[in-house]
Amino acid sequence: MEFNPKVSIVIPVYNGANFLREAIDSALAQTYQNIEIIVVNDGSTDGGQTENIAKSYGERIRYYYKENGGVASALNFGIREMRGEYFSWLSHDDVYYPQKVEAQVDYLKKINKDVILYSDYDLIDRESQYIRSEKIKDIDPRDFRYALIVGNPIHGCTTLVPRSCFEVVGTFDNRLKTVQDYDLWFRMAKKYDFMHLPQSLIKSRVHPEQGTAVLGSIHVKECNNYFAACLNELYEDMKTNGETLASFNMKIAINLKKRHFDNAAEHALRLSEKSRRENSKNIDIKYFLVRSYYEMYSWKIFFKNVSKKMKNTLKKKNVR
Description:
Elements: E1 7-13, H1 20-28, E2 35-42, H2 49-55, E3 62-66, H3 71-81, E4 86-89, E5 95-96, H4 100-111, E6 116-124, E7 130-134, H5 144-150, E8 161-162, H6 163-169, H7 180-189, E9 194-205, H8 211-214, H9 216-237, H10 242-258, H11 262-278, H12 285-319
Parallel strand pairs: 1-2, 1-4, 2-3, 6-9
Antiparallel strand pairs: 4-8, 5-9, 6-7
């Protein structure tokens, strides 16, 4: 029997009249035919502009309006309403290349098992002009949860997710505003393989109105909490290898410190020390080397901040 699954493209949107039409057009232009397009208006307050654009497509899309609840709630609404066997997320300000869905379905035909697919992507500006390509490194599925903590290995809109995964793992956490995607990927990666397609399948738009840019302080807080929760889970999973776990958490602490997630870095440090106490019979030279680097880097940041404050104070005095 030919593998021809229905793919549901879900487009959540809030006050997105500036980019929505381009996103919908790219979904309609897919070379893979067995698709449905679901647009979820998350309580837009732009005088009906977003709604008018969506409704102008008539029966070519399925349009829904709901009270504002954030991106996660809009995506979950779309997941509940989807009739397809696979979920494909498209942000209202991003654009699919025509072969996005077809390339991924073709890959699924070859492997014949439930996996989450993701790909490379291109960056564009608010005028849709090309900026650069983002090439993702191949990651062993067994290491994917670690990769989600130390970097940004996946763009949510490049994914293709079997509907069955949501039935097993659950959907996006409505309480989260900026890390709802990585939270879900971390939960899914415990049970399913994430497979990388080394080709650019979407255009991701960079502009000042993006959620993570607007919700800066919330993003930092959510990231710190998310990383801490992930580290706790990995700690329990890796307990049988105490010496490795101590060095493992120290490396993550350094990574998070460099990315300015200080609370999460301190949490990783505490877990590292906990592992050392629980497995103190052997001397782990690697651990002490990594710990020394962490301390030196922390002092470096401290003196850099002090120097910056002193320079700002001198500038203010000179102005007076």
